[in-house]
Amino acid sequence: MSRAAVALLALLALGPALGPAMAEVAPGTTPGSATGLFGGYDDHNAFARILRGELPATKVYEDRQAFAFMNIHPLSTGDLLVIPKRPYRNMMDIPPAVLAHLIQVTQRLARAQARALHPDGIFIRQNSGEVAGQTVFHFHMHVTPQYAGVPLAKTSYGQAPADPKELAAVAAKIRAAMR
């Protein structure tokens, strides 16, 4: 595993000290499906449906293993998600090689966000299990720009999603900064 992967894993271990992003389970989750650390994969979750083209997503990046898209309930301008294309629920079942690749993609996207959006910091997190704040049970990394003096938004699945045109404009800036 690369040094970057090891460093990010150490940072992720601090997640609980920073506080989980507790929220309700995402709509579309199969009732009674596993929401803890262990259990079967629910192929009706929102990210599986995005990968199959059943739900729309504003793509920022894609390769053979990873897909990154804008968060439709952003905590800040430029908030995006990085997911594997294969069905892994959380940190407990994702293979180390896939995780290392996703961390490299996450770093590349964070650097692009920094160049394109000029945040004062970038908050990277991964929540595993409902109690830790995971709301969609497909492994994902949050890559959230933070701006001094601007608190992160309090979002809910009950709120309307962000304007797709605004998400597309921000995604275009991030993609341009990746070149």
From TrEMBL:
Signal peptide positions (record): 1-23
Domain HIT, residue spans: 46-157
Residues spanned by motif Histidine triad motif: 138-142
Residue ranges crossing the lipid bilayer per the database entry: none
CDD domains: HINT_subgroup (cd01277)
Pfam families: HIT (PF01230)
SUPFAM superfamilies: HIT-like
Keyword Signal: yes
Keywords assigned: Signal
Record protein name field: HIT family protein
The species this protein was found in: Sphingomonas abietis
